[in-house]
Fold this sequence. Notes:
By secondary structure, the protein is an alpha/beta fold. The protein is built from 8 helices and 10 strands. It has a domain at 5-87 and 160-235: P-loop containing nucleotide triphosphate hydrolases (Rossmann fold), CATH 3.40.50.
Amino acid sequence: xxxxxxxxxxxLVIGYGSTFVMxxxxxxxxxxxVVGLIGPNGSGKSTLLKALAGVIPPRRGRILLDGxxxxxxxxxxxxxxxxxxxxxxxxxxxxxxxxMGRYRRRGWLRWPGSDDRRRADAALGRMGLHGLGGRHIxxxxxxxxxxxxxxxxxxxxxxxxxxxxxxxxxDAKNRTVFYDTIRSFxxxxxxxxxxxxxxEEVPPLCSHVCCMNxxxxxFGPTSExxxxxxxxxxxxxxxxxFS
Length: 243
């Protein structure tokens, strides 16, 4: 691990049941980087994020945060899943969702206090949802729901934020909130890894790119990695390059 690395993946093997999805993933992510995770559908982007988040245990290999096994620092990793993986009918308010971000640091058995609720309301306000903490999550638009989960990541005070297709179906207004928040994370030394299929998002937002197709095709700074020859190897054919 280099001096500026925060997250290190060593020989990672991930699978479901008897099926191996990815083999031998190895890369280092710099502190404060914004990494665009790109590749064709089914290439393993979501699976990798779930492994980094501790949702899927690796078959082999190691994931290190600042040189230590990442499971020792689970509270320092925030995960925003795809919208379709969330049960929006679950009986919980926006404030309740955001407050869950405090549990991983405080412990699941400790009831949230007034400071946790204050932080949750402040995070919702930062996401443009001031005064709406008491609403049920099903009462929000898709873009607002994604902002609620981003607010949950904010109150967690993470060192790593994992975003799985956060901007799918999100309008321009909501995208601006996401862009600003992601840039703020990076400015404060928080590493962000964002899976996306919208390639035009990558050059203006991401400092690094991780190209995947059931393994790592390439990983590096956007200026060196987001180039036609690498994208053709990643997607298996001609692909438009946005700059």
